[in-house]
Amino acid sequence: MLRTAKEVQLGNYAPAPFVLTHGHGRRVTDASGREYLDLSGGISVLSVGHSHPRLAAAIGEQAARLMHVSNLFYNDRAIELAEAICARTPFDKVYFCNSGSEANEALLKLARRYHYDRGDRKRVEFVSTHNSFHGRTMGSLSLTGQSKYHKGMAPLLEGVSFVEFNDLAALDVAVSDETAAVIFEPVQAEGGIIPTSPEFIQGARRICDERGALFFLDEIQTGYARTGRFLAQEWFDVVPDACSLAKGIGGGFPLGAIAVTERVAGGLPPGSHASTFGGNPLACAAGLAVLYIIDEENLIENANRLGEYLASRLQQIDERLPSTAGTRGLGLLQGLVLADDVDPAATLGAIFSAGLLLTLAGGNVIRISPSLNVTQDELDEGLAILESTLEHPARST
Ligand SMILES: Cc1ncc(COP(=O)(O)O)c(C=O)c1O
Question: Is 247 a catalytic site residue?
Answer without folding.
Answer: yes
